[in-house]
Amino acid sequence: MVSELEVRPKKGETKVGESEISRDEMESWWGTKISDIHPGTIRLRGIEIEDLIEGWDFISVVWLMAIGTTPSKQQVKLLEAAMVSSVDHGPQAPSIAAARMAATCGIGLNSAIATGVNLLGDVHGGAGQQCVEIIYEIKGLLDTGIALTVATESVVEKWRSQVKYIPGFGHRFHSRDPRRDPLLNLVDEAVVQGTVPGQCLAIGRAIEDHLSKGRSRPIPMNVDGATAIIYAELNIPAPLARGIFSLSRSVGILAHAWEESQSGSRIKGPMPRSLNPKYIGPN
């Protein structure tokens, strides 16, 4: 019989089949620049958790964790505005509705939140990321010396040939999104203060002008377009912009799931019980 001592790996290594893995290789498997956790110590991006607790606000910590640098107060103000603007859009939003239904099915709030967040895809929840991509694409052409109007028309028309709607512009519910103006006003202020360069703001407005050209009714940008300008002005990568939006919307999802969980409803479906979906199959 082989004893436990005979099969136990030597200090600093472990055996997997015939191969040996060093301690350094094991510890590097999930190597990270984000968190340094040891007994009695928590550092995030090199900053002691005690210092973060005592002196940092939540949005600054979001920036620190996701982007990896220490933000200025002006950058935090812009990111906070973008996140506040996106927290909720009512139960008619599929992500909110799904979370509310999930909350009546006997699952925990964490699962209800996950249900809602998991619906944030390319169609519902992805417009902000896509708009950032458009802005960066136009910005890339500007860097080669192409004029703003020419670059905007080129990129927008290319996207128009691929999608039905230009993401970030127009709204099925609001003729003019009430979140647009206050967000753009904050970006205007940030440009004056020198916090952001303003090029992405100019691109966003150029897209708006191009889409509205020749129309009696303009197509103003919506919250996704306005927040995309903020994310782009802050040099946030497009995929990370969707992640930050999801973090923001999870606040509204949490609130709605909690409210529904207090209603006493059980297994609440998408329609009142007095109604049934219309049958359209063969008789």
Automatic annotation (TrEMBL):
Protein known as: citrate synthase (unknown stereospecificity)
GO biological process, one term: carbohydrate metabolic process
Enzyme class, UniProt record, top EC level: transferase
Record keyword tRNA-binding present: no
Cellular compartments per GO CC: cytosol
Keyword Transmembrane carried by entry: no
InterPro entries named among the record's database cross-references: Citrate_synth-like_lrg_a-sub (IPR016142), Citrate_synth-like_sm_a-sub (IPR016143), Citrate_synthase (IPR002020), Citrate_synthase_sf (IPR036969)
Positions of region (Disordered): 1-20, 264-283
EC number: 2.3.3.16
Domain of life where this protein originates: Bacteria
Gene3D superfamilies: Citrate Synthase, domain 1 (1.10.580.10), Cytochrome P450-Terp, domain 2 (1.10.230.10)
Similarity comment: Belongs to the citrate synthase family.
Keywords for this protein: Acyltransferase, Transferase
Pfam families: Citrate_synt
Molecular functions (GO terms): citrate synthase activity
Pathway: Carbohydrate metabolism; tricarboxylic acid cycle
